Amino acid sequence: MVSPWARFLFLPSLLGVIHVFSPYFVSCLTLRADSSPTAFAMPAPELALGMLTRACDAHLNALPAFVGLSVIEDENISTEVEGKLGVRIGSVMLALSGNSSATLHRISGGTHVNLESGWLYFSSPANSCVQIHAIDALLRPAKNQPTQARVRIDSPRELQVSAIRSDLLFTFQDESKIIPQGKPIRSIWTRKARHRSRQVPQAALHLPCHQPRSRFLL
Question: Taking the model in full, what pTM does it have?
Fold first, then answer.
């Protein structure tokens, strides 16, 4: 049996231990209280813009591309000479032929594609918004209905456009032209186009998706 005197002598030692280690106890209790799912939450990963549906001799940025790989904002897709690449962005389908390159951007209500070289095919359903920026021109569906088209950059001054299904709206600076379905056109600039960056043109950010202009180009 422990005597009352022993308990009395032991009490100051116990109080001293508590005094020394009290900051650690408080820290542990605080950590425990903050251990909610949000206390250690990591920043949310950037949402994928789309997914690769086909990849043969193709690249996502500087790395080899493969089917099922996610594509996020401002990433570059490209193909080698004999390469093929397909991307699904929501209900919009994009395809690059050989020796082609494009950068993908998210815009309000849809997708903006900056075609830098080669061939691009796109297919979009009704009630969708897709814009193709090639050289100094901007192309998009002229009507709110399913659209299919091919765009090809032949040189820094030459662009070929073919509306396979439905009409296209071809916009250059402040002028526009309707490209009818089934009637391919070739646009040739008399002077070399200005240098294009991979950023979305400011005009494209505010351009309605389905509102044709009346002025004629070419």
Answer: 0.69
pLDDT of residue 44: 47
Q: 70 versus 28: which is more confidently predicted? A: 70
Going from N- to C-terminal start, the domains of the chain cover: 1-41, 50-205
Record: fold of 50-205:
Jelly Rolls (2.60.120)
Taking alpha carbons only, the member of 108, 129, 128 closest to residue 202 is 108
Question: 185, 160 in Cβ contact below 8 A?
Answer: yes
Task: Please answer whether residues 77 and 65 qualify as being in contact, where contact means their C-beta atoms are separated by less than 8 angstroms.
Answer: yes
Residue 157, pLDDT score:
87
**Alpha-carbon distance values, 38 to 13, 33, 43, 109, 210 (Å):** 40, 12, 10, 31, 42
Cα end-to-end distance, the chain, whole Å: 108
Looking at the chain, the whole-number percentage of residues with pLDDT higher than 70 is 65
